[in-house]
Amino acid sequence: DTAVSQTPKYLVTQMGNDKSIKCEQNLGHDTMYWYKQDSKKFLKIMFSYNNKELIINETVPNRFSPKSPDKAHLNLHINSLELGDSAVYFCASSQGSTRRYFGPGTRLTVT
Amino acid sequence: KNEVEQSPQNLTAQEGEFITINCSYSVGISALHWLQQHPGGGIVSLFMLSSGKKKHGRLIATINIQEKHSSLHITASHPRDSAVYICAVGDSGGGADGLTFGKGTHLIIQP
Fold first, then answer.
1. How high is the pLDDT of residue B88?
2. Which residues are CB-neighbours of B47 under 8 A, at least 6 positions away?
3. Of A25-39, A48-62, A68-82, B16-30, the least confident
4. Which of chain A's residues have a Cβ under 8 Å away from the Cβ of B84?
5. Shortest CB distance from B41 goes to which of A55, A92, A105?
6. Over the stretch B63-99, which tens digit does the pLDDT of each residue have?
7. Cβ contact A83:A100 at 8 Å
8. Could you tell me which chain B residue has the CA closest to the CA of A91?
9. In Å, how far are A11, A21, A43, A62, A72 from A80, measured between CA atoms?
10. CA distances (Å), B48 to each of A8, B14, B100, in order?
11. Residues in A touching B35 (Cβ below 8 Å)
């Protein structure tokens, strides 16, 4: 069984569109994250959510919003997509602040 | 805010060689993570450590809290070890997930 899954794996869309990336973890973890990896492969946290508290990295535009329908899911919604949003987005989970388990990534291309 | 430096940025070695990747940070931490990202893009957590040394197969991670330094060693390296290795440190100033990431070390093991 896949521990952390993301869909879709690839997403190509035009500027101005709204899109969502889904993430699910079956590890029973209490904390989930979204990371962005830029073209230089540098990882950067976007959000963390532990069922009680959403922590947002201050550099993330408010066009990005995480939505958690339940403890096992943390979906990423992006409004009004821009060229600069093109990147690989990784979902991850952990129990508290322990080891992160990463999803396979979603490569977003905005044209 | 913590500064995380990895060295070297790029490393090419022959199969069988002993590999060392270094990570240094500027401020005291709660824990240090080593991640591996394969050419296919997936990210795997290798180690999380806060003191001493951990070993898993041919991989060894050490940390010296006083010197604010960690090393990742690979013994009897193999072409399948070719990947980007990322150091990340956990501290209170590390953003939404408490992690500050290094820029990664790109390792190529030639047969």
1. 93
2. B33, B34, B54, B56, B59, B61, B72
3. A48-62
4. 41
5. A105
6. 999 999 999 999 999 999 999 999 999 875 555 577 8
7. no
8. B43
9. 15, 14, 23, 10, 27
10. 29, 27, 14
11. 100, 102
Residue A99 tokens read as 């080891």
Instruction: Write the pLDDT tens digit of every residue in B21-31.
Output: 999 998 878 88
Say whether B101 and A46 touch across the interface (CB within 8 A): no
pLDDT at A39: 86
B68 touching chain A per CB within 8 A: no
CB contact under 8 A, B96 and A57: yes
Tell me which amino acid residue A3 is. Answer: A
- Minimal-distance CA residue of chain A relative to B35: A100
**Token representation of residue B92:** 């209170």
- Rounded to an integer, what distance in angstroms lies between the CA atom of residue A22 and that of residue A86? 17
- Spatial contact of A19 and A11, defined as CB atoms under 8 Å apart: yes
Place of tokens 């408010």: A62
User: Hey, which residues 6-25 in chain B have their CB within 8 Å of chain A?
Assistant: none
